[in-house]
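Hey, can you fold this?
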Amino acid sequence: MNLSLYGYDDHWIAVDCGMMIRQDLPDSPLQIPDVAHLAAEGMIPEAVFITHGHEDHIGALAWIWPHWGCPVYATPLAIEMLRAKFLERGLRTDALCPVTPASSVEQTPFTVSFVAVTHSIPESCALAIETPGARVLHTGDWKLDPAPLIGPPIDSRPFERLAPVDLVVADSTNADVEGHSRSESEAGAALEAVIRECRGRVAVSCFASNLARIQSLGQIAARCGRRVALLGRSMERMVAIAQQLGYLEDFPPPVPTYDLGYLPPEEILIIATGSQGEPRSALSRLAQGRHPLLDLEAGDHVIFSARAIPGNERPIERLKNGFKRLDVHIHDEHSDPALHASGHPARAELRQLYGWLKPRLLLPVHGELTHQEAHRELAETLGIVVPERVVNGDLLALENGTLSPRRHFHLQPTLLSPRTRAGRPGAATTPRRAASSLSIALTLLPTETGWTRIGRLLWDSESALDLDEEALADWLDQRIDATPAESLLQLRQQLFAPLNEWLQAHLAKLPELHLQLMPADPQPEHEVRSASG
């Protein structure tokens, strides 16, 4: 998540407003920033400035903006992504104000200038924030890509004109990596080399917002004699928005998804969402054999063209295990590191930027603590002062050439169900009389760490139930994965009560539950995990 506030003379602005998916919690809720304390402290932003359109920078704004009701300034691509989110939430969109890179916005007493940078999504910008008392550069996410596939390389002149800056608030994600980050054109060449050697279907998973990667894959498909298909609503929506704004002009017309099952495997290149193991994504459904329009088969290929976000290792590994059971070939950063190009700067790029800006102070942000500490060490070798380590919730004062902590706000996790709808009542907690019965049958396979569900969810009820089958399947997958059990009988015993509670929270009337767990291989030894898993 990203949300930074800058204040001067009791006036405040916000930079970015992102969310994260908590895959470590049941039902994978969304976590958004805690802003409950701001009103009481008089820290209500008078404007929001967006650096770029990634979810961890814009994903929470549609939830939080109603508390503020202020103008939102962003480049056109991010504005259109926000417009879709606002409309989904029933919010008015007249507060969304598109700006071009290299433009400035006067929000007294601030002057905020958008400075174009290269990143894995077009129209990314750093923000130069000037007040009568200081000049700060907020980098956002960036890299020095000498050969970006969309847009020009970074121009050093706007940064040099800002020098010296009092403070740079800077991306630390790759601060522990020597050298330069890989160019997007290099990742495209590596992808093409792998895809040319593939037989059967090829599915490539990347972030929907990585338009350069998507454009590259479209060109690779044309050169390799394959037709492109897009899987995942976020992927389809992102491509549509990009084409509306003049990007992806030479992207080949996608094959309708309902035709995928009829085309020869060698003619298909699928671009899919779900590289982080998101349970409701297109890639997860393919790995579980539950996609309604397509089944991957032995000999097909899946390419992960995205780095694993820290914390998502377990769902990604579960995803890959699903493909291994299908005898699908997997290509990822471990088998071929060149398949992905990071959107963040390595140490040589940080040195170059600081040579342009000549900052007096650095506040390392983004990444984990180890990355921020590596960033501190690098900056100090360049004579840049770095304050003591700060954490989320710290309020800092920039004055007299120093950056010092003033107070700390204790932030609370703010969790939202990804399926929450406006006006939907909360789940009741009182028992309810059973409304007929519900039978659920699950097919399970023993794994090294426990059990995993395969195939489609089978359920039947005596009466019509308003049951969200996808939500139930996602919950079951996560609960089963997190439940230690040596046998199917033991697993059923540990699953039955939590499943009843889930149904009670999601249905108007609680049915009488009948739960059947079936081994994937109907042999007695497969109903109990062996010592080797």
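Oh, and this one too while you're at it.
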Amino acid sequence: MAKGSIMNAGQALPTNMPKNGVPAASPSRRGATSWRGRGWVLKAPVALLGLLLAILVVPPLIMLVQTSLTDYANPDAGLSFINYRQLIADPLLYISIANSVIFAACATVLSLVLGATVAWVVERTNAPFKPLAYVTTVVSLGTPAILYVSAWTFLLGKAGPVNALWRSITGGFQPLVNIYSIPGMVLVEGLLWVPLVFLLCGATFKRQNADLEEAARMAGASVFDTVRRVSMPLAKPALLGLAIFIFIRNLEAFDVPVLLGTPGGVKLLTSDVYLAMTQVPPDLGHSSAFAVLMVLFVSILLVFYGRVSRSADRYASVTGKGFRPRPFNLGRYRWLGGLVIWFNFLLVLIIPMTAILWNSLTPFIRPFSMAGLKTMTLKHYLVALTDSYYLHMAWNTVLISGIAATAVIAITALAAWFSVRRWPGASLLDQLASLPIVLPGIVLGVAMIQIALRTPFGLYGSLSLIGIAFVVRYMPYGMRYAQPGVMQIHRELEEAAGISGATQPAIFRRVVLPLLSPALIAGWLFIFLLAAKELSIAVLLAGANSKTIAVAMFDQWTNGQAGEVAALGIIWTVIMSCLAALMTRLTRKDNNSEGAL
């Protein structure tokens, strides 16, 4: 069924109602008067879910603002703007802002150029070696960011193979790449986001109408001109929206700024917040004021993101029966498309993974050499597989990530159903569930610390606190999976169940959930993978016995245990990559069946 028929379906309700008095389906605006006498039946679940969402997402924002307005040098003075005055008067703030914007913008450009190019080659052309792009994406989704940072630190460090080769060629002493500078940080951060850009751009390019590209080629346009004047302009709103999203995520990045920027003396907003919270004693007011400024900055960017998304209809090229998703024939340039895929495969996956594997097999960090092959050992793997510390961290990660993903999917499945079917007051659910997207991970961690310190439940330093933070953090991601899934389910199926006497809970359980399950499972896996890699929240909230794998890797890396970090990372990446492969398969299957219901 075409998308247009899905959206037009169900705008009016059937006049017959089941005997139990419960409406057959959630009303549209035109049909609202038919059930007004029994509105409480529909309002109660929405109100309860709205209350739950408000309890989860509102307190962190309130606590953040309240703490930023507290003068900890004079707590009895009431609300004060002293933290903001001190922050604005500090010239280092503007250095951090400038560095953050430059870092995020350059990393975004790198991610988009490489990721979108690979996506177009894979989805729109007949280039060879396409499976390599999906292998790269799957493994990258399952790899903790700290592993990539450690790999590129080894490769591009002052004593790394790249700079060593450069010095041997030039005979000089200056390194080719300074990994602890903004250009080095941009390279690492940009490559981190290439797989996700490929995944999201791939869905856009896959749905482009090939007739327009073929018409351009028949008119004499070259392959390059066709891409520049037809393919990319059609994807302009999707690419612009994705650029804003990636820019926001780069702006709130934690791993690269802390692990590379801090040793190199490069100040960024996220590293400033982290250092303010981890100093002794922690500067709560300063870090909270910093965090509020980040929230305001991100909120402005999200406004632009919303405007871009709303204008996407003007660029639609899929118009029903005439749509045929055919690959673009590159002709004699097929080898160039294959070369792009291989370049991405080597740069994003093989080179860093080779470095991680090398470090995991050598007794200590040493450059690539034939002599190093003789000293290879599996002792780091034995430690990672048998040490109770690592096993405990792995169990913590699986447990808390699984619980958080389950809670998010359960809440957002209901919220999406209420919102798409226009239950009374359900528009507020979408807004509440999407609100945490303005909170960067490090900012949410600061807010949750304030909440934990004021509650008598022993939350501070517990797995429960991390789990609650994960639920809040990934609520918007759950909605992005659940809402399109509900939109693909024709309202007539729910109306038929209602006419047969099914109650609303029965309709949701026996009709909606089975049809929605592919999207929900893919969303669960995606959130699980993100939570299992999350460092910025966990590193602030974790206690001695509530650390996750990402925090354990962070601690061991800063303590100089790079071999154990590499071995643990390889094992963890293999496990997570299997889940990422399942998620990718379910997502592609769900996208292929879009509009079939």
